[in-house]
Design a protein that fits this description.
alpha+beta, 5-stranded antiparallel β-sheet, 44% helix, 24% strand, globular
Length: 104
């Protein structure tokens, strides 16, 4: 449980770097799960539709980086194994930041 708390703190730290991106409406983490909520309009927080292509597109681009993400509607989830290293976590969030930033 100590490792889960440590990873959650790292997730929260890295998620805050995503918050200013134009397509990011909200970010959150709980235990080993991190989520990035995508919005089509940041001012109104209008979400992309459940079947919109933005989530799957981010998933495909992440997979090209060797990262498996889980898009559900307008929310992209990070669900890594407990054995993930801090360096790998940073790499995952660096890739997400690059991918989502490039779509803005």
């Amino acid at each position: 449980l100590e490792r889960v708390r440590s990873l959650e703190a790292l997730y929260r730290e890295r998620l805050e770097r995503l918050r200013p991106l134009p397509l990011v409406g909200d970010v959150r983490a709980l235990g080993m799960v991190a989520a990035v909520e995508l919005v089509s309009d940041r001012k109104t927080k209008a979400a992309f539709g459940y079947l919109d292509a933005v989530g799957p597109r981010i998933q495909r681009e992440a997979l090209a980086h060797g990262i498996l993400l889980r898009p559900l509607g307008n929310v992209v989830y990070v669900l890594p194994p407990l054995c993930i290293t801090d360096g790998e976590v940073k790499g995952v969030f660096d890739a997400i930041e690059e991918i989502v930033g490039s779509l803005s």
